[in-house]
């Protein structure tokens, strides 16, 4: 039954969320209505996930208030939000791979028999009914690890439906689904709206919204820049609202003279690990010249990281590509072969893939070029210090000593150490995957300046980033990716935020 608040069941008023050094949300208003789908759209980093997590009880707001059925509420955690009828389907699935489908759906709320033990028969029957609603024909006793990613996504949705929520928040729910599964999800959404369930839908696929949406709110830099009925907007207007900030004070690279080609990769392809016949990267070709910065832009799931990892030899059994360095074709079946060919990769996940926390600054810097520090098959501290010190000084790494544990440095200085590590390999081309993610403004500016220096020295640089201003400020040419494919290429003078974003969004059928 609808509430008496103009159909509004959940509302955010002036919500602010601050993290150390960052204001993620700066006074956001949002209204969620019964029986309606409200889309939440914006660039990566616009604040969508932060707002979603506040509505679901993951975070608490720094200021502002939430109202549920017209009454002020505060959720200490997701369970409290769930008890009030608010459920969330996370993009990063919260499932246990070695439990069955039914056990995942009913985890913590299993039906019990009269002896107080789990009634598996009843649980499996109930799970089958939920799966039937999603047209998912799988045995509820199947282990989650044996399902495809799209099937797991649907199980996550079934898990939410079991609680009979009044508000469902969906974060990029179709990112792992097949066309048939998407159609099933859309039918379910229409059924839920008929049952007066309110839905918050976060997606980069704007065309989906015009099939199932009622209202839309656009976030940019943590603030609402547009809101209203979806039929008052068109595709291009939403794109303009999403990217409409001025470049203003952003760093702009002085274009370097571009000479001969230093690196080329043709028809890079990476098979999907779980969906047969599908690809994470499909037939992407790129090249970069000495002294050139090639930018690669794409939204979540576009395949930027997978492209760079494939070039670097991280997926040899599921990938193919023709790679050339200085005009000579090279075979790359492992990172060691990539390094030997003159290719370095600064990974997206600094803490998991970029360094070893327990090791020193000096040891981390020499990791990719240990042969230069070896003496009689052992690493010489003296030799290591001699050759890594110059790279660390060049990057102005702030550390009391090369023996200092890298985990004690700031995020910006950790990132500089990773850059120094790859420079120590003396590469011809450097692949940078989100090189300024999670670092402060000053460190970011220093890294921008250093990228300039690298290009001016003749190094080829490939920069993958989800930040449009960063791509526009640093790149000589820009490649745009969407769903694993290259959709456009622009020179620096041709590029703008609007046309890049259009190329990055899935095309209308």
Report the β-strand fraction as a percent range: 25-35%
**Number of beta strands:** 22
Shape call: globular
Mean pLDDT: 86
- How many helices in DSSP terms? 17
What characterizes the major β-sheet?
A: 6 strands, mixed
Architecture overview:
This protein has 509 residues and is of the alpha/beta class. The chain is 32% helix and 26% strand. The protein is built from 17 helices and 22 strands. It has helices at residues 48-55, 78-83, 101-105, 120-133, 149-161, 179-194, 206-212, 235-243, 304-311, 335-341, 350-354, 361-366, 381-394, 411-423, 441-456, 468-474, 497-504, and strands at 8-19, 22-33, 37-41, 63-68, 71-73, 86-89, 167-171, 198-202, 215-220, 223-229, 261-271, 279-289, 293-297, 319-325, 328-330, 343-346, 374-375, 378-379, 429-433, 460-465, 477-482, 485-491. It has a 6-stranded mixed β-sheet with strand order 6-7-8-3-9-10, sandwiched between helices. The chain has a 6-stranded mixed β-sheet with strand order 16-19-20-13-21-22, with helices on both faces. Helix 4 packs across helix 5, helix 8 (235-243) packs across helix 17 and helix 13 crosses helix 14 (411-423). The radius of gyration is 25 Å and the shape is globular.
């Amino acid at each position: 039954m609808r509430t008496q608040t103009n159909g509004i069941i959940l509302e955010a008023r002036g919500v602010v969320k601050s993290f150390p050094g960052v204001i993620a949300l700066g006074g956001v208003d949002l209204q969620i209505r019964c029986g309606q789908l409200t889309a939440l759209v914006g660039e990566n980093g616009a604040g969508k996930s932060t707002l979603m997590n506040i509505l679901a009880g993951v975070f608490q707001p720094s200021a502002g208030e939430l109202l549920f059925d017209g009454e002020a509420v505060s959720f200490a955690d997701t369970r409290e939000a769930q008890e009030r009828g608010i459920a969330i389907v996370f993009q990063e699935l919260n499932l246990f791979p070695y439990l069955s489908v039914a056990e995942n759906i009913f985890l913590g709320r299993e039906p019990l028999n009269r002896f107080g033990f789990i009634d598996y028969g009843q649980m499996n029957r109930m799970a089958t009914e939920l799966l039937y609603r999603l047209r998912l024909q799988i045995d509820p006793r199947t282990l989650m690890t044996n399902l495809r990613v799209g099937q797991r996504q649907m199980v996550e949705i079934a898990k939410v439906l079991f609680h009979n929520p009044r508000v469902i928040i969906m974060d990029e729910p179709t990112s792992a689904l097949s066309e048939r599964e998407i159609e099933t999800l859309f039918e379910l959404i229409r059924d839920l709206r008929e049952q007066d369930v309110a839905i918050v839908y976060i997606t980069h696929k704007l065309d989906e919204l015009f099939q199932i949406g009622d209202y839309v709110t656009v976030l940019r830099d943590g603030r609402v820049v547009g809101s209203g009925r979806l039929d008052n907007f068109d595709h291009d207007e939403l794109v303009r609202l999403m990217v409409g900030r001025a470049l203003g004070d952003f760093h702009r690279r002085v274009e370097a003279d571009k000479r001969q080609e230093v690196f080329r990769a043709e028809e890079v392809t990476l098979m999907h690990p779980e969906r047969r016949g599908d690809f994470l990267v499909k037939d992407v070709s790129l090249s970069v010249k000495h002294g050139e910065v090639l930018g690669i832009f794409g939204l979540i799931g576009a395949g930027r990281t997978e492209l760079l990892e494939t070039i670097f030899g991280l997926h040899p059994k599921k990938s193919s590509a023709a790679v050339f360095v200085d005009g000579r074709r090279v075979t790359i079946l492992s990172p060691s072969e990539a390094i030997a060919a003159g290719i370095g990769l600064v990974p997206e996940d600094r803490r998991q893939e970029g360094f070893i926390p327990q090791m020193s600054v000096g040891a981390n810097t020499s990791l990719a070029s240990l042969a230069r520090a070896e003496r009689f098959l052992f690493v010489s501290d003296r030799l290591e210090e001699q050759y890594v010190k110059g790279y660390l000084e060049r990057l102005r790494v702030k550390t009391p000593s090369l023996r200092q544990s890298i985990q004690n440095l700031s995020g910006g200085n950790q990132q500089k150490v990773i850059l120094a590590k790859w420079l120590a390999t003396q590469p011809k081309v450097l692949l940078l995957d989100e090189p300024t993610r999670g670092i402060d403004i000053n460190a970011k500016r220093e890294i921008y300046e250093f990228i300039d220096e690298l290009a001016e020295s003749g190094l080829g640089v490939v920069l993958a980033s989800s930040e449009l201003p960063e791509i526009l400020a640093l790149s000589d040419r820009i490649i745009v990716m969407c769903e694993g494919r290259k959709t456009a290429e622009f020179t620096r003078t041709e590029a703008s935020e609007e046309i890049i974003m259009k190329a990055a969004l899935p095309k209308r059928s």
